[in-house]
Amino acid sequence: MSIVSGAIDDRIVYREAAGDDLPGISRVRFAVRENILTPEQLRARGITEASVAASFLTTSKGWVAICRGEIVGFSIADREECSVFALFVHPDYERRGIGSHLFDRAVDWLWANGARRLWLTTGPNTTAARFYERRGWTATGAAEYGDVRYEIARPS
Q: Cβ-count burial of 36 within 10 angstroms (0-12 exposed, 13-18 middle, 19+ buried)?
């Protein structure tokens, strides 16, 4: 995807995430307008830059979207849990297809790793919830922290 505005090149480059990307990933995570959590709240859930970097070496894989040298979106999938662990796009870059591209990478990787059913959680009545519903995911009930659990079965 290439978006050019005037003389500034706004091409989006996608690649696999690495532990060194965690500061940029965190910057995006804390810039969002929905599903807002503080660093302290994430830490209380066991989610830190160190824990995410460690997961990249074992059961998880992440992808980043980069524009002008800055991470502007990311997704993370966990093959052991068969889950999409995270999908976030910086508010300044929403509605450009970045989230769809990152989400597809995570889902495709999980299917390629043998998952039969995937799940994720998100806040109720959010843009994210509508995003997943448009892609065929079904709300299956309440999850921790007031979130809603979504699931989808592997396509035939």
A: exposed
